[in-house]
Amino acid sequence: MRIRDLLVTGLLYLTTCSSPGFCFSPSPHQPISLSPPFEYLWYEAENMRGISQTARHEALLNPSYLELPAARAPGWGINGPGVSAEWSQGGESEWNSVAASADETRGTIWQDIEVPRAGEYKVWVRYADWGNKTENFNVRIEQQNRQVFRHEFGGKDVIDPHDETNMYWGWVFAWDGAPATLIKGPARISIEIEKAAQAVRQVDCVLVTNDLTYTPDGRRKPDFAAMRYLREWSRARTPLLPLIETPARIDAPPAWQRPKLAGRDFLMPWNIPKEFWALYGKPPAERPLYPFSAEPMDEFVKAYSGKREVPIFDSKLVVPVIYINDLPELLKDGSAFRR
Q1: What is the C-alpha separation between 176 and 151, in angstroms, rounded?
Q2: pTM (2 decimals)?
Q3: Domain 40-215, CATH 2.60.120.260 — does that match?
Q4: Taking Cα atoms as reference points, which of 38, 95, 41, 49 lies closest to residue 76?
Q5: Looking at residue 28, what is its pLDDT?
Q6: Buried residues in 304-336 as b, exposed as e (16+ CB within 10 A)
Q7: What is the bridge-based pairing of β-strands 201-209 and 40-44?
């Protein structure tokens, strides 16, 4: 049984009165307007497998504007996120994209997907189209251990080289697509490099859809089923019944509650450097008593060590914020932070 089937079975069980005092009321079904059975399968290139890694197993960076040779950035690497060139075009479809050097001849990234229904599809790719240059790469789909789709992108200009964005940056994001016949079931999408090109290969995302009349535009997303459901509900605003009849208690004991400001809950998150926590190993008279962030740090420590009255930082409204990258050091055995 698949995880999806287990979840459905569990939800059906919870919507029944399986035991006294533990009964959930189902929410009313929301009417959804009928629409053609179109599927929009959207995949971000930067989330695919096979991206080159550093010695620390971090994704290798290959910003396209640096035009690095393959010797320094082999295979597919992470492009950004992009900067001015990308942002002036609305940005990448999500947060990032991938890039491969112009002289690279080998590289593959892939993602395993599930095709929800058999039929005719179109495979769209958003990538950097360099004016009067090639940026060749292939997209391949395999099902049941055989190739069912293969198409080369970037072999010719998609956008007019005289496009003003293209003339300014030398390239512009473009969508290009090719037809595919797919069967229902598992599939693997691969983005591959098989030869060198005249320009950097930068790929943003892939869309596989059986809506053959749909043409992607910029970074706009198609009408995903989840968004359509929420849009339909937002028009009617039909009240939904809670899953649990009696709401859980959310009131905290008085001792846990922060002091209110003008009768309202209020706090001030403040980034606290790891150097402050290292001072915890010293006696109170030799260190500031409250978490702080101030420069120059040595002068602040000298001025306020052991003092109860400290501007700003003695307020009970200040809540320390710890940088997550510092946690491995702060949580080591014997660290001043843990003491």
Answers
A1: 11
A2: 0.65
A3: yes
A4: 49
A5: 46
A6: bbeeeebeebeeeebeeeeeeeeeeeeeeeeeb
A7: antiparallel
Query: Do the Cβ atoms of 48 and 95 come closer than 8 Å?
Result: no
Residue type, 160: D
- Enumerate the CATH 2.60.120.260 domain ranges in the chain, comma separated: 40-215
Give the containing element (helix H, strand E) for 181.
strand 171-182
**Strand-strand pairing, 119-130 and 201-209:** antiparallel
d(CA 162, CA 155): 18
Q: Is residue 19 very low, low, confident or very high in pLDDT (cuts 50, 70, 90)?
A: very low
**Residue 302 to residue 293: CA distance in whole angstroms:** 14
Two tokens, residue 145: 């251990």
Amino acid at 281: G
Query: Residue range 267-293: average pLDDT?
Result: 91
